Amino acid sequence: MLNGVFPSIVIIICFALIFGSKFLKRSITGLQFFYWMIVGLYVAGLVSVTLFPFPYQKFLIDTMIEDKLGLPNNYIPFNGIKEAIQTGYYPVIIKQIGGNILLFIPLGFALPILYSNIKKKKVILISFLVSLTIETTQLIAGKLIGYNYRAFDVDDLMMNTLGAFIGLIIFKLLFTFLKKNNLLINQKSA
């Protein structure tokens, strides 16, 4: 299995090079560089959690196909959540619902910090599109390798978007504190 360590390192190095050079050229502040590095760590973690580990060994893929170990895609809203609740197994419920919400709270919080004039609807749209990209990548990967190691789940899409909305609410609640302590980049009012 290909784990997410190497892709995560590449992502972090890319963020460090891009935003480090901007910082050295004085086109961004130290605070902006810090925030972009935190976002780089978040993106690396997001990619690692949602797309990896990824099977590439033929014998492993063949075994998983033969043993029917693939996950089903879910295109029906709330179906996966309903099934998780019906199992009564709380770790599954917490992972399915809570994990997907928590995964996108940082994105909903970070976007208005990084882009001071961004509209609330755009934060939600960007978050939805990031989640859709992840789910679509999982769908395509399943088609390419012949089974769903990771599956497309519309419930994940909804819970991720809800998480971003919660992150936006947290930003709004903390706006005055952040502004008072000079932790915002060119912000007007929330």
Automatic annotation (TrEMBL):
UniProt keywords (A-Z) are: Membrane, Transmembrane, Transmembrane helix
Record-annotated VanZ-like domain positions: 41-174
The stretch of residues making up the signal peptide is none
What protein name does the entry list? VanZ family protein
Q: Which InterPro entries match?
A: Teicoplanin_resist-assoc, VanZ-like
| Protein species of origin | Fictibacillus terranigra
The transmembrane residues are 6-24, 33-54, 97-116, 123-145, 157-178
What lineage is this protein's organism placed in?
Bacteria, Bacillati, Bacillota, Bacilli, Bacillales
